[in-house]
Amino acid sequence: MTGLQKTLKVVFLGLYLLVMVFPLYWIVITSLKPQKDIFSFPLRYWPQKFTMDNYVNIFKISKFHIYIGNSLIVAIIAALIVLVISVLSAYVLARFKFRGHSQIMLAFFLTQMLPGFIALAPLYLMMSKMDLLNTRFSLVLMYTVGLIPFSTIMLRGFFQRIPSSLEEAAMIDGCSRWSALLRVIIPVMLPGIASTFIFAFVQNWNELFLAVMFIDNDALKTLPVAMNSFILKFDVDWGAMSAGAVLSIIPTIVIFAFAQRFIVEGLTQGAEKG
């Protein structure tokens, strides 16, 4: 690679980084601006005065701590259920051939091609008849059902990378298939399991559409619904919206920071063989 090529590469990557980082920077800066400075003209890319009023106000004018708690409960529980079911189903689909195997995989792929809103009316009627509207369980159930197909497809790729001889050797040593799965295969699968859990958690954490449709009780609303409430009829509370956005991305940043190694390794391995 010549010097010119290296320079162009650095310039391109720098511009790309700027484009990616600037929206996050602008959200953080807006959340720290006084209300009158948010709409100032010309634009100020660095506020003259920093304030935490926007962060204080979102807890004063709304039950923001409750919304965060609801989102954590729903996102974590649904992600754990998705993980358990997907690990078991992916193991079966990766290790065994049976009648209907191809049809099940085809059905899983087809679910990823259909827009979710086409099932909204039947889902709403079903939740209503089961008396599950305005409950966290309805969101957990919907999130779990929606993420199992993709998570199963993702984990199946990891299982196919692991030689079946590992569990066969464990069973020869006296382990049952279930014990071999838990003691031998699962530890090797940790990158894939971590990646799948994080994927499911982030999807649940950011989901808005179903949360708006199934939850009316203010005490049960999730964080995306609370963020949506800052969009008023004739205005948008940009200060509160930005402060809420900053707080909402903290859990995902923490998770990615702790599991970065698993994410990179896991997604790369899972994509190599599916």
TrEMBL record:
Location of the protein in the cell: Cell membrane
Keyword Cell membrane: yes
Domain ABC transmembrane type-1 residues, every copy: 68-259
CDD domains hit by this protein: TM_PBP2
Membrane topology listed for this record: Multi-pass membrane protein
Broad class of where this protein is predominantly found: membrane
Keyword rRNA-binding: no
SUPFAM superfamilies reported in the protein's UniProt record: MetI-like (SSF161098)
Swiss-Prot/TrEMBL keywords: Cell membrane, Membrane, Sugar transport, Transmembrane, Transmembrane helix, Transport
Transmembrane spans: 7-28, 72-94, 106-125, 137-159, 180-202, 238-259
UniProt family annotation: Belongs to the binding-protein-dependent transport system permease family. MalFG subfamily.
UniProt name for this protein: ABC transporter permease subunit
Organism annotation: Paenibacillus glycinis
Native organism taxonomy: Bacteria, Bacillati, Bacillota, Bacilli, Bacillales
